[in-house]
């Protein structure tokens, strides 16, 4: 069938995991968007049991709700992404003019097996809107060296 | 140069070794509300794969459809890496921490653009005409039900329904058909005479299927009669009850008479007006005057009439050269004055 249902976001319970990002970037499912100019390369992990590799640290130096209150938005102008040992990117938090719907195959979350086909797919494929994201953290500049050294993982 | 102290205030970022697959769909304001708050079903429709072959194929595309609107999906390449992240509790180097974990990467995003084309364009391609020639039906079965037809058209169901109604299209034994002007004129005559015979007041509420089954006794498919009744009904009519709209009937009878006159022969205006009146219910007979169909006809001579062509390309072969020659004369006049 060339008509594929796109299910609205289900009102699922929020995840129990603590979200380390500022409150403004929180969504019901915890999904957020991170945009980087370029690609992050990292070495193949020696430990086959690990499912991810730490690549850096995201910091919002002006974010201080205790001092400026939750409604303060000036902190959005500055974000740092420390990558590897010695590189830093400067960016900002942007409110999206048009929010993004994050779409996945219905019931496919977690297996990561198949791509999302927008139409033209075969079988009784169904899609769902997993989340609507209104902000993104953008790093649109080249990384700059920090702390002197220039070795470590490149960006 | 920045110091390393800030490093420790931040949230660690990790990248998953196995990415999940997501698509990012940019939502225009009119969609955001719909997606967030309503339970109205959304679907993504595309042209069936087979239609991408052949010389008259349309460019393949998919559209996001709400019940009444359609938005064409366009894929846009992103020059940057766009990661979808989610908080996770991870253990690295024997220390547990809440991280921001990138678990999907999107190289393209999807934009939505309102799609307002007429669904009739697709229906004309997919739905065969249903003609009646000398009492015999001339058509072919397409084996496409109304539901499948709508699913095959990358427009909203509301847009499809509108075009379906405008064509007075109908479904019969799993196939869909669109009646010709000639067929519609004949079925209309059957509806009109059945209503008169049974004393059904067509401008008051009547049961659509009762009248349609009377017309079926004349040999026309009941779904066709019902489609035409709905086509001519007042805006408030539901599917079960109908009441015919005077202006719709007046205009319908006139334009179908003109359109059915395809052979190109002259249609005397006086003959047309007589036929128009004869085909109207008695109570609207007096309303058959040319100003009721303003803009739908043209008078090629003082005594003849024909349907006004919508496109200007099909039947307007005659007036165009006339205009052309007129403009040419203008150029000649200018040329003459210049030479002097």
UniProtKB/TrEMBL annotation, chain A:
Q: At the top level of its lineage, which domain of life is listed?
A: Eukaryota
What cellular component GO annotations does this protein have?
Ctf18 RFC-like complex
Q: Where is this region: Disordered?
A: 1-22
Record's keyword terms, sorted = Cell cycle, DNA replication, DNA-binding, Nucleus
UniProt GO BP: DNA replication; mitotic sister chromatid cohesion
Q: Which InterPro entries match?
A: Ctf8
Q: Where in the cell is it found?
A: Nucleus
Q: Which Gene Ontology MF annotations are present? A: DNA binding
Say which family it is in: Belongs to the CTF8 family.
**What name is this protein filed under?**
Chromosome transmission fidelity protein 8
What species is this protein from? Periconia digitata
UniProt lineage: Eukaryota, Fungi, Dikarya, Ascomycota, Pezizomycotina
From TrEMBL, chain B:
Q: Where is the composition biased (Polar residues)?
A: 308-318
An annotated GO cellular component of this protein is: chromatin
Tell me the GO BP annotations in alphabetical order. DNA replication; maintenance of mitotic sister chromatid cohesion
Q: Which UniProt keywords apply?
A: DNA replication
What Pfam families does the annotation carry?
Dcc1
Q: Where is the composition biased (Basic residues)?
A: 326-340
Q: Where is this region: Disordered?
A: 308-340
Q: Which PANTHER family match?
A: SISTER CHROMATID COHESION PROTEIN DCC1 (PTHR13395:SF6), SISTER CHROMATID COHESION PROTEIN DCC1-RELATED (PTHR13395)
Family per similarity comment: Belongs to the DCC1 family.
Listed name of the protein: Sister chromatid cohesion protein Dcc1
């Amino acid at each position: 069938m060339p008509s594929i249902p796109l299910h609205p976001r289900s009102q699922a319970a929020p995840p129990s995991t603590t979200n380390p990002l500022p409150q403004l970037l929180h969504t019901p499912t915890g999904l957020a968007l991170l945009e980087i100019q370029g690609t992050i390369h990292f070495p193949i992990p020696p430990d086959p049991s690990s499912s991810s590799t730490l690549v850096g640290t995201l910091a919002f130096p002006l974010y201080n709700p205790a001092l400026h209150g939750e409604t303060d938005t000036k902190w959005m102008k500055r974000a740092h992404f420390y990558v590897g040992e010695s590189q830093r990117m400067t960016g900002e938090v942007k409110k999206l003019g048009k929010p993004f719907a994050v779409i996945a195959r219905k019931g496919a979350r977690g297996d990561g097996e198949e791509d999302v086909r927008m139409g033209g797919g075969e079988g009784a494929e169904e899609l769902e809107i997993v989340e609507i994201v209104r902000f993104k953290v953008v790093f649109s500049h080249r990384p700059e060296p920090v702390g002197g050294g220039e070795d470590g993982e490149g960006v | 140069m920045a110091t390393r102290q800030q490093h420790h205030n931040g949230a660690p970022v990790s990248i998953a070794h196995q990415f999940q697959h997501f698509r990012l769909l940019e939502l225009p304001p009119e969609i955001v509300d719909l997606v967030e708050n309503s339970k109205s079903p959304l679907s993504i429709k595309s042209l069936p794969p087979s239609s991408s072959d052949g010389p008259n194929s349309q460019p393949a595309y998919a559209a996001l459809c709400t019940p009444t609107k359609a938005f064409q999906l366009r894929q846009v390449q992103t020059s940057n890496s766009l990661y979808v992240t989610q908080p996770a509790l991870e253990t690295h180097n024997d220390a547990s921490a809440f991280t921001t974990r990138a678990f999907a990467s999107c190289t393209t995003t999807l934009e939505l653009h309102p799609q307002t084309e007429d669904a009739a364009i697709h229906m004309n391609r997919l739905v065969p005409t249903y003609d009646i020639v000398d009492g015999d039906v001339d058509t072919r079965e397409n084996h496409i039900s109304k539901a499948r037809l709508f699913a095959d058209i990358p427009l909203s169901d509301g847009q499809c329904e509108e075009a379906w109604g405008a064509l007075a299209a109908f479904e019969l034994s799993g196939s869909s058909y669109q009646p010709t002007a000639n067929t519609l004129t004949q079925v209309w005559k059957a509806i009109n005479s059945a209503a008169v015979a049974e004393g059904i007041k067509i401008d008051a509420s009547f049961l659509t299927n009762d009248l349609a089954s009377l017309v079926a006794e004349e040999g026309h498919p009941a779904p066709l009669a019902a489609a035409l009744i709905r086509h001519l009904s007042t805006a408030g009519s539901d599917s079960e009850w109908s009441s015919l709209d005077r202006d719709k009937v007046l205009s319908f009878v006139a334009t179908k008479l003109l359109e059915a006159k395809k052979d190109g022969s002259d249609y005397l205006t006086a003959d047309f007006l007589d036929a128009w009146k004869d085909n109207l219910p008695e109570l609207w007979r007096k309303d058959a005057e040319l100003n009721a169909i303003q803009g739908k006809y043209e008078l090629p001579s003082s005594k003849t009439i024909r349907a006004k062509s919508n496109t200007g390309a099909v039947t307007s072969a005659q007036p165009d050269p006339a205009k052309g020659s007129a403009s040419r004369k203008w150029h000649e006049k200018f040329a003459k004055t210049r030479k002097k």
